[in-house]
Amino acid sequence: MTAQVHHLIGGEYTPGTGEHLIAVTNPANNQPIAQLRSATQTEINQAVAAAKQAQQSWKEVAVSERARVMLRYQHLLKEHHDELATLLSQETGKTFEDAKGDVWRGIEVVEQAANIASMMMGETVENVARGIDTYSYIQPLGVCVGITPFNFPAMIPLWMFPMAIACGNGFVLKPSEQDPLTPMRLAELFEQAGAPKGLLNVVHGDRTVVDPLLTHPDVNTISFVGSVPVGQHIYKTGTDHMKRVQAFAGAKNHMVIMPDADKQTVINQLVGASVGAAGQRCMAISVAVFVGQTKAWIDEVAAEVAKVRPGLWDDPDAGYGPLINPQAKARVLELIESGKQQGARCLVDGSDFTLPGHEAGNWVGPTVFAGVTPEMRIYQEEIFGPVLSCVEVATLSEAIALVNANPFGNGTSIFTNSGAAARKYQHEIEVGQVGINIPIPVPLPFFSFTGWKNSFYGDLHAYGKQAVRFYTETKTVTARWPESGIVEGQNMTITLK
Question: What are the UniProt keywords, alphabetically (predicted)?
Answer without folding.
Answer: NAD, Oxidoreductase
